[in-house]
Amino acid sequence: MRFRELLLFLSLLIFSFSLFADRVYLKNGRSIEGVITKEAAGDITVNIGSGTITLDIKDIDSIYRYSASEQARMMGKWSYKYYLRPEFVSGNFKDIAEEFKQLELLRGKAIESKKTKDAGEKEIARLEIELEGLKAELAKVSREFTETSPDKDIEKYNSLVQDSNTLSSRIRLAGYNKENLQKQMSSLDKYISEYVNELRIFNHALSEKTDSLSGKLSSKEKYFLAGINKQLTDMEGDFRIYPVSYNSLGSSLVVRVLINGLVTVNLVVDTGASLIVIPMNIADKAGVKIDKNRTMAVTLANGRKVKAFLVMLDKVKVGEVELSNVRASVLEKEEGGAISGLLGMSFLKNFSVRIDAKNNKLILEKFNPG
Q: What is the pLDDT of residues 161-214, one digit of tens each?
């Protein structure tokens, strides 16, 4: 054994009865900071905070022993970085640590669900456009069909029958695919909702626990809380919150909505309405393009069904949040009253919606992880 290695081996033997915070310098120029937990004739085991590694003595150049202050600094750094490891969690916060681990798992599921949902929503929008086009084609074929006599033009009649059957089949298939995707989107929503709810519950539990120990926190507990709070700050960054002022009309909430950057209207917040609903005069002022062939039936708040046209609004702004390409329906006839229409799910589905009745605010919360 060379003299240098002999000195190293003897130094390891001397320190074998206790643990030391050291920096181990390797012959390849690197160094490792940790606590030597085991020494043998040919190797040493070092705890590096996230786990342990074993080093061959032949690869070690020298070991620098930390002072008490350096040891404290290193343990503090570890406590902050590896705050969820059992050895860094005090008994007071073991339940909080376990709950936070579950919260992190929920966050992962929510983020994956959001990605899948975004892709699904795009496909649903594509299918809806496809369905509208197919239905318009079918309506055109149906008109020609009623005007064509099989006795006078059997070839055209048969061709129209075939076109009608083909279009009907494509409509059924697109409708089936859309319905299945919508069911999948609903199941994905539960993961996002669960994460949102559990995050609020966890924040409340953490606040109560911290308050109960106020002024009695150990250094380990302070490092633990610093690590947890850093992660919670990142989690809060997953959300954008938009408070919107509202007025009450009976049991309904009314908000001001800017359409296409041109017209501001009063709309009732209605989670039961699938689309935004506005009257024809507002659509005209907002420059909305209307295809009279794209019709639908809309049920008003009083239960009456009226004819409407399906349209796409370029921009819809509520408070400080603005969305592009929002589907809506335009009433064929203007309805009387101070309320112009409904703010439906074609806008609201993009948010978690809650009411702050104390401050007359509609809270639109969007889960949008970076």
A: 999 999 999 999 999 999 999 888 878 878 888 898 899 899 999 999 998 887
Task: Select from 288, 231, 242, 296 the least CA-distant residue to 265.
Answer: 288
Scanning the structure block, which residue is given the tokens 């004819």?
Answer: 307
CATH number for the domain that contains residue 275: 2.40.70.10
Tell me, yes or no, whether 87 lies in a domain: no
Non-local (6+) Cβ contacts of 223 within 8 A are 76, 79, 80, 83, 88
Check residue 29 and give left, alpha or beta (phi > 0: left; psi -120 to 50: alpha).
left
CA distance 84 to 98: 8
The pLDDT tens digits for 247-271 are 988 888 999 999 999 999 999 999 8
Residues comprising the chain, all counted: 370
Examine the domain organization and report whether 312 and 346 are in the same domain. Answer: yes
Cα angle: 348, vertex 173, 137; to 5 degrees: 85
- Does pTM surpass 0.70? no
Give the pair of three-digit tokens for residue 179: 């319905």
3-state DSSP call for residue 67?
coil
pLDDT digits 0-9 by tens, 289-343: 888 777 887 776 667 788 888 898 999 999 999 999 898 999 887 665 656 789 9
Are residue 200 and residue 272 in the same domain, yes or no?
Answer: no
> How many angstroms separate the CA atoms of 225 and 231, rounded?
10
pLDDT at position 19, please? 54
Cβ distance 295 to 241 under 8 Å? no
Domain boundary (210, 236, 262) is at 236
Cα-Cα end-to-end distance for the chain: 56
Quick check: 330 and 311 in contact, CB under 8 A?
yes
Containing structural domain, residue 339: 241-367
Shared-domain flag, residues 252 and 327? yes
